[in-house]
Amino acid sequence: MATAGPNTSTSSAEERAVEERIERLQEQVQTAKGYERLLKAKLAALDAEPSVTDLRANVMALELEKEELADRLRRLRAGQVKPVSLAEREAVEAELTEWKMKAQRRKRIFWDMLAMAQDGFAEVKTKEQIWVSFCVHGHFVSLLTGMA
To answer: Among 31, 101, 102, 122, which residue is least crowded by beta carbons within 10 Å?
Structure first.
């Protein structure tokens, strides 16, 4: 047992040294994790910013838009464009509303006539296919006869 005493004290001193080292390493890990979070936040902020290439493309697009707007402004200031009066604008808007209503009525009539014409047909097309076919061929007969 006399030999156990010095080994025990040596091992307890070694244990304390190991425990102190573990504590220091844990503190270093915590510090490193905090630094990592800080770097990740900085990286996220940098990623959120547009790249130089994107900025150059945006600048070029804005310069083109500026030139177009300046050209339009020059024409307006030169008097080449006649201003639209309030009465003319209201008349155009009223006519546009009237034509929109006519288009809606015509579309409803088209679908009603199509529904009547399709009764008894074995091949049923979707509304989208029928509308495309009608628009491409330009007349209602091609829908009924199946001619392309």
So the answer is: 122
